[in-house]
Amino acid sequence: MKDAIDIVVISDMHLSRARPFFQFNWEMTVERLCEKPPALVLVIGDIALDGSHHPDDLAFAKAQLDRLPCPWLNVPGNHDVGNNLPDIRGEATINAERLSTYRDIVGADYWHHDIGQWRFIGINSLLCGSGLPEEEEQRQFLQAAISTGENRQLATLYHKPFCHGAWDEAPIGQHFWFPEARQLLLPYLEAGQIDLQISGHLHESRLKVIEGVPNLWIPSLSFSTDMTFDWRPNLFNGRRRVGLTEMQIAGARWSAKTVEPMELLNTDISGWMKGGSLSTYSKFAGERPFAGFTHPGTTAE
Ligand SMILES: [Fe+2]
Fold first, then answer.
1. Using an 8 Å Cβ cutoff, are 245 and 219 in contact?
2. Which residue ranges traverse the bilayer (predicted)?
3. I need a surface site. Which of 51, 90, 178, 182 has the fewest CB within 10 A?
4. How many whole angstroms from 298 Cα to the centroid of ligand 1?
5. Distance in Å, CA 117 to ligand 1 centroid
6. For residue 40, how far is its CA from the centre of ligand 1 (angstroms)?
7. Digit-coded pLDDT (tens) for 34-48
């Protein structure tokens, strides 16, 4: 596109100083972005391996993002601030302490950013249903961000995808926004005020127009789960490979291309997850340190 502005969108890096399982893909991504810096990097959450229990994972992830050759903005994921309520997955959940830790270490959990003709509005989707005072503050922020951005194209970003295929669909596990939480955005979607929705979380990439609004799913940079569909059904019709999404905006137009650079490692954590619960993930991500493992900057607990 003529006079296009380059933006790169990444998600789900799951970084950790003490448990650097996925650091290689991050190093390759930093190299790639330094070779051809975009104007902006948008990050869609789960920057940390297990930030809910280990703030150092968040501190490390923040330091890694600061290596990027351009400005970046992140919306938190469930592995950064805890899962949204009501939790049906057995995860650590969002609370005042986790939210404040995230804000202290990483920065704002909701924000808007104007670039070209576009306004990107980042939303903390884990706040929805929390009952924390910040949930109402975010609602008011969103209202203001949309009304003052009425002359712009608006894209909303959140870790968990808004829905699978319809705005009024029933919950599918806890993979998407719960129906009650969708009320936050529905008035603006129904009024045609949102031009694009961007999300991560599923570790699957997909582009699908839902009720007239394109929904862009950003792939994970760290791992996929059951790439070969041996045991986890292909429920969402996304693509289970690691990668990143290169966007361009020009005036009111946009385009996006998800790329899977050949140097990235497609780690499949099926072995961790096959038991059907998150407990195995927690074993790998949550119990530390490794016996005999030290890393510069790691403090043994
Ligand atoms: Fe993730």
1. yes
2. none
3. 90
4. 23
5. 30
6. 21
7. 999 999 999 999 999
Say how many Å lie between the CA of residue 211 and the centre of ligand 1: 26
Q: What is the pLDDT of residue 300?
A: 41
Question: What CATH homologous superfamily does 5-286 map to?
Answer: Metallo-dependent phosphatases (3.60.21.10)
Residue 231, token pair as written in the block: 């045991």
- pLDDT exceeds 90 at position 268: yes
- pLDDT digits 0-9 by tens, 141-175: 999 999 999 999 999 999 999 999 999 999 999 99
Q: What is the CA radius of gyration of the chain?
A: 18
Ligand 1 centre and the CA of 267: distance in Å? 13
For residue 277, the one-letter residue type is S
Record the tokens describing residue 147, joined without a space: 């009304």
CA distance 218 to 202: 9
Summary mean pLDDT of the chain:
93
Contact 204, 238 (CB under 8 A): yes
CA of 246 to the centre of ligand 1 (A): 19
**Contact (CB, 8 A) for 199 and 44:** yes
> What pLDDT shows up at residue 218?
98
Among 69, 57, 74, CA closest to 22: 57
Q: Which helix (H) or strand (E) covers residue 181, if one does?
A: helix 179-182
Q: How many angstroms separate the alpha carbon of residue 160 from the centre of ligand 1?
A: 9
DSSP 239: B
The answer to whether the beta carbons of residues 100 and 79 sit under 8 Å apart is no
Going from the Cα of 221 to the center of ligand 1, the distance in angstroms, rounded, reads: 9
Reported for 26-32, long-range contacts at CB under 8 A and 24+ positions apart, including other chains, are 26/64, 26/221, 28/261, 28/263, 28/264, 29/221, 29/244, 29/264, 30/64, 30/67, 30/68, 32/261
Q: Based on the number of CB atoms within 10 Å of its own CB, is 170 exposed (0-12), middle (13-18) or buried (19 or more)?
A: exposed
**Domain residue extents for the chain:** 5-286
